[in-house]
Write a structure and sequence with these properties.
Layout lengths: L1 H16 L5 H8 L13 H9 L14 H5 L9
Length: 80
């Protein structure tokens, strides 16, 4: 939850820089958090930040970096 709140605050600050009275800012403020849902699901950004705390990162499946893992899920870069 801490990461989600932190990202929400960063987004709020970025929106405020465009102006407090803009329709976009007012709409953003009327919406719930996009980083954590009422059902407890977190955004990809939150999950990525959480992984970063352990020195890990999320890589899109279609990224060239993921090719070896798609071909062999037991592939380990350390062993290569």
């Amino acid at each position: 939850m801490t990461i989600a709140r932190h990202l929400d605050e960063q987004e709020r600050q970025a929106m405020m820089e465009m102006g407090h009275e803009t329709p976009e800012f007012l709409k953003y403020m009327a919406e719930d958090s996009g980083n954590v849902g009422d059902d407890g699901n977190f955004s990809l950004q939150v999950l990525s930040e959480a992984l970063n705390t352990w020195g890990l990162r999320a890589v899109p499946l279609r990224s060239p970096e993921a090719v070896d893992y798609l071909q062999d899920p037991t592939y380990s870069r350390r062993a290569a």
